[in-house]
């Protein structure tokens, strides 16, 4: 681990958000990226997933962004809806005390809803290339103030066919002063995009996965024995949190059903599911409501789970890049984790492709121990009962925040500054107690920080906002 966040020149609001997340020291990639990024350097970085990369590129931008900015200054391009939403949430969390807010744009999400969100004040855009380009072409996305461009998981964007969209978007941004690009691996195509977009940039290489706390294991498993091998692993190791990767959505559904028939709690997530169902499954898994998630690569890219015990490749990856990305689901932020790969008789070519890609042999391929299949079932049942009994409730990172609803918005000519002005007049409410103010058509939502929610509700109830008496209550949403 590296320097303390207190030792770098960041604002107290940003430092407070970082500390609320439980971080005190920078990871290696954060230490390498944050300082040159704060200096305005263009960066092409490679980093193992889970090493703190998102915070590394968001912090320098957040530090140079103000609530007073009337237009978005940051655009982040990501290969999946889930990752775009994850980055949006991270931006909102880190920017909470600076009152900064991001908007997510992604396919299969109602365009009109996104268009409405873009009309409210926001400071960042996090999106998938296709949808972002669609907004640009329709004129619903104002990019005139975008100063910072982040292109995340460049290798994945290329493999999904987004190369031309990414270049088109980047070239349409006329005010960009700094570009930060990140990729799990930096190959010829990744360097090619960087060279097309940038005249001057520095390359920051991350540590290899050996420096992370990830134990990597490969097991020889015949295709017909895979499910038995999975049960042996679950019964024997009793992981508290595990992602089980498969290569197709059909296999994803089948495997989830087979596990449930064995009375094992699990969820599934794949690209063919409705977006709402995918997000519900992802949130339940991240909140540890259910311990196991069967997933395809497409759907799992945005899942950032602390303390994931095992990333299991039930199906050996077909795409060589997925070998690295799947490994990065565990061992995040330098915690211990295991990456396990089942290798069947037909996986020979894919194994050779991965070895050529990572530049070394996978090493010893172990024989699977099926003993726990016979001896571990009863003890696993007791273990799962304990998991169910201690299933955590969802909690917010910011426990001192109250969201307030006011039944007045744009239709009543209410503006954020009107609400802020009224709040400032309430005894006991200081400027630092007022979070994001989101004025919508028929109502407004306000984040009140530092446990001052009741004071704000009482004060607003006894006050008029722009001469109007409005209903004030704790938000249900």
From TrEMBL:
Any Pfam family matching the protein: Helicase_C
PROSITE patterns in alphabetical order: HELICASE_ATP_BIND_1, HELICASE_CTER, Q_MOTIF
Database matches in SMART domains: DEXDc (SM00487), HELICc (SM00490)
Record motif Q motif, residues: 3-31
Keywords: ATP-binding, Helicase, Hydrolase, Nucleotide-binding
Domain DEAD-box RNA helicase Q per the UniProt entry, residue ranges: 3-31
Tagged with keyword DNA repair: no
GO molecular function, a single term: RNA helicase activity
Sequence ranges assigned to domain Helicase C-terminal in this UniProt record: 226-373
Domain Helicase ATP-binding residue range list: 34-204
Example of a GO cellular component annotation carried by this entry: cytosol
Family: Belongs to the DEAD box helicase family.
Name of the molecule in the record: RNA helicase
